[in-house]
Write a structure and sequence with these properties.
single chain, mainly alpha, Rossmann fold, two-stranded antiparallel ribbon, two-stranded parallel ribbon, 8 helices, about 10% strand, flat, GTP binding, P-loop_NTPase, nucleus, TRAFAC_YlqF/YawG_RiboMat, Nucleolar GTP-binding protein 2
């Protein structure tokens, strides 16, 4: 059912009321003896004066005529105080790019058991978060039959031993685990038959 608050009265404020309140706030803002009641119900973002926002007026630093007019004298791009020429900017960009590549390579490389460094694909980190496992445990607690879908090309590689160990605990021993072999059409029938025999034990 929809929330009943959707159909109730909404708090709407007009521009005139907001302006009056702003003027009233200016007179009492520095008064330590005046307290604003129900401040949470007021749109404090709208109450701040919009005219105080800093605006970068480009026409004060450089006129429109001197940039785009007939007497425009801007011939080469301004690169800022740090770079005197295009070559200096190019050199700076190359050094920054090499620094970034070094950082990326050090973060993506990880030490394998034999001490060598190997690259780890991001796809292998999927499904390892604690939040995901918490949700999975909630599903296991609330269900009586758990279906585990295995790939017929590699059933042992797609099998979750952690989930099976969880179902063998004393509290969850009454739950049933069903294996489903998927993509059986991609392997010979004798392979499927052997896997069915082995997984049925």
């Amino acid at each position: 059912a929809p929330d009943r608050r959707w159909f109730g009265n909404t708090r709407v404020v007009g521009a005139k009321a907001l302006e009056d309140f702003r003027d009233e706030m200016k007179t009492h803002v520095h008064d330590p003896y005046t307290v604003l009641m129900k401040a949470k119900k007021l749109p404090m973002g709208l109450l701040s004066d919009p005219y105080k926002r800093a605006t970068a007026n480009l026409l004060t630093t450089e006129s429109f005529e001197s940039t785009f007019g007939k007497k425009a004298n801007r011939k080469r791009p301004r690169l800022g105080a740090a770079f005197s020429s295009i070559e200096a900017l190019s050199q700076h960009t190359k050094s920054k790019a090499s620094e970034f590549e070094e950082r990326q390579s050090s973060s993506s490389a990880m030490t394998v058991g034999d001490g060598s460094t190997g690259y780890v694909e991001k796809i292998f980190e999927k499904g390892t978060s604690k939040r995901l496992w918490k949700e999975l445990y909630k599903v296991l607690d609330s269900s009586d039959v758990v279906v585990q879908v295995l790939d017929a090309r590699d059933p042992m590689g797609t099998r979750s031993r952690k989930l099976e160990r969880e179902l063998k605990t004393k509290e969850k021993r009454h739950k049933h685990l069903v294996f489903v072999l998927n993509k059986c059409d991609l392997v010979p029938t004798w392979v499927t038959r052997r896997w069915v025999r082995r997984l049925s034990r």
